[in-house]
């Protein structure tokens, strides 16, 4: 799945900035891919791009209108349909990562066919993936793993890719979720792949490469999350990672959505992930820990990270507060 760039980001009638987090992620990590934003009158979000009409965006060369907003329930609102049709008729594809499909809306399907444009439902893979073979692949790979869901694996992965490129190291982010795909324009939504083929899908998006080339693979879920450990396991095996980074949010009282499950001990989490990853790469190692300290005061956050670094013997950073440089320093020693 590859999306044509540049993008017009559709913020629709977003109730607040959080509802436009997909658009904000694209703006933050791929600003050169964004021509502008399109907001409806009721929109309460702004990602800082020029406000453009469909006509203006088309004149400036927009290739894809990306739905960068998630409303309640994650559905494509009927209030958006006329705007989406206008975009198709202006020569743009449409991409979305919501729960219902663009391709299930007859008006959009008919218009896309008539205008020779494409509808991309990035949450739902269209490619047929093979069963994984576990064969050693050339190139290098780093994978982010987590103590829980939504602890910063995508942000950390994108920060690592950015830092590597800033240092002149060949690297690419490999998206495994719908938001990452919309940010980068390519990838596979691992949680929508039939379980037998998850590892094969990750092998497909991270194939043989040059010896010093780093694929930065976005992690999903957690080995300790009763709901999603299966997705995580397949992704770890398919990644065949040379290096791992542990992502953690320390203020949670339990696993996300599972009040009966406490967060795992960090040392145990490292051990279990190494055991799982060693099936396809016996030489895998951890190179750092990424802590999401957004719910902590700075002094508290710094003290916590310093203690974790002593306990684990690994570089520990908050990539938003401090950058990811110290983890990349360790990575490049691999």
Automatic annotation (TrEMBL):
Question: Where is the D-glutamate N-acetyltransferase-like N-terminal domain positioned along the sequence?
Answer: 49-124
Q: Which Pfam families match?
A: DUF1611, DUF1611_N
Query: Which SUPFAM superfamilies does this entry report, sorted A to Z?
Result: P-loop containing nucleoside triphosphate hydrolases
Spell out the Gene3D superfamilies in the cross-references. NAD(P)-binding Rossmann-like Domain, P-loop containing nucleotide triphosphate hydrolases
Question: What positions does the domain D-glutamate N-acetyltransferase-like C-terminal occupy?
Answer: 131-328
Cited InterPro entries: DgcN-like, DgcN-like_C, DgcN-like_N, P-loop_NTPase
Q: List the NCBIfam families.
A: DgcN
Spell out the protein name for this chain: EBNA-1 nuclear protein
Q: Which organism is it from?
A: Vibrio palustris
